[in-house]
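To whoever is on call:

I kicked off a structure prediction for a single chain this morning and the downstream step that reads the tokens threw a length-mismatch warning. I double-checked the sequence; it's 106 residues and nothing unusual in it as far as I can see. Pasting both halves so you can look.
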Amino acid sequence: MIITTTSSIEGKTITSYEGIVFGEVISGINFLKDIGAGMRNFFGGRSQGYEDEILVAREQALQEMEQRAFELGADAVVGVKMDYETLGADNGMIMVTCSGTAVKLA
């Protein structure tokens, strides 16, 4: 399935719009990643644990959105947008959401 941030797909014709589809993932950041991130925050550098967690959550959200588009009989999802938020009293969770328009192609 084609998933794109653009509103059209080069060389393809959109024949119908099947609806807006979403993917949502809320992922907890574990204690060990928090310690590592705190050390990097103090000394500087990138937090590989958080980056890995975001990568996994983003892929899961895209897969969920793709599955929902597939269930609508779509061939592609256009106009995809992604958003990231922290949740929880101590910001210990990350939410990744994506949305787009499921379409059928000629």
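Update from on-call: the warning came from a stale cache, not from the record. Cleared it. Sanity check on the structure: The first strand starts at residue 2 and ends at 3.
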